[in-house]
Amino acid sequence: MIQVERTRTLNDNKIADKPFIIYWMQSSQRVEYNHALQYAIRKANELEKPLLVYFGVTDSFPEANERHYRFMLEGLKEVRDDLRERNIGMLIEKVSPEKGALKISSNAALMVTDKGYLRIERTWRDYLASNAACPVVQVESNVMVPVETLSNKEEYSAATLRRKMNRLIDEFTATLTDDSIFISSLDIDLNLIEFDIDDLEKALGEMDIDRSVKPVEAYMGGTRHANSHLEDFIEDKLHKYSQLKNEPGLDYSSNLSPYLHFGQISPLYIYRRFLHVDHENKEDFLEELIVRRELAINFVYYNDNYDTLDSLHIWAKTTLNEHMDDKREYIYSLQEFENAKTHDVYWNAAQKEMILTGKMHGYMRMYWGKKILQWSKTPDEAFKTALFLNNKYNLDGRDPNGFAGVAWCFGKHDRGWKERDVFGKVRYMNAKGLERKFDMNRYLEKVESLQNE
User: Which of 81, 110, 342, 363 has the highest local Cβ count within 10 Å?
Assistant: First the structure.
């Protein structure tokens, strides 16, 4: 079932007299549990037309580099192959996605697309809807509850969003029926120059992208790898997740965030997989998957300043401004932060973990962001530094969770605490706190072993 709340018609055009239904895939890069794809299949069958899936690969997605592109293309190869098995052709072009989608829409009786939440993603879809001659229908598939159904405003905290989520979630957790296409589109040729991704090294070599951040072996893109991480988590980690998830020297996280970022796994699929899991710790995990993740999406959707210090609550901006001129014991440049050249071995290890693996331990990411605030000339400079490094090196960077996570380090979705120098009333973290709670030598050894691999 695809609830009406998941669908939104973006223009007032009528079904066109054209040969195809086209699904412009962008944020939901998967075949499994994809509401937009299933909607497109049903419309194609209803109108007795073949369905084509379209994807535009741009060289210039903000802050993306070779690490991100490699992971994405690995996933797209799997998507294309899985679609072929379902008699659905996929066309991949190297083009700015919204322009490619508009061009191919001239062949479409109906364009279907998925929903994105960042500024650039929304601009792309608005461009298509404003310029296409056919109807454009957006189907939301990367959240449990559609963002506008869940709330019509920016939520203050997890507590306020959680109440709304608890009232609505049961309406949106039904299994998604996997329909088959009636008319094959495998032999359709639109005489366009396709981007050949069979040889990933060759494909990446043809792209004009930032090559300063190399791909990592720790994570390979695609739904199959996402599902493998999920099953490993349930089998080997869930039983100790609540007790050990914050232990930096261990790995009890699901490692699903890169896959959720690229839409290579559905949060609904994960949720339904946990319906068959009998363990009390699953509630802590589902809190992160559902409430915390969708709070971040709510944040970037309703706060136009999500990537600046202006996104903060008034109290946080005020207290940071009041302590702007406080003396900082250490001040580091962007280059020193990036090269892990601070006096703090724990902070340096977190930065190195991110550079080496494309992901940082969740608790250390909070500490990492807090210290950038403490060791920068101004809060504004600190905010920009944290976002730059997070988005550059993390596979799950450039994501609502990333923007919300950085903002949290500066007081977002939090409350005031004891007033301190530099931080004001923003929550404080220090190295002694890490040492009291965790075996930090084990974390240092873990990161050192990554460097020696």
Answer: 110
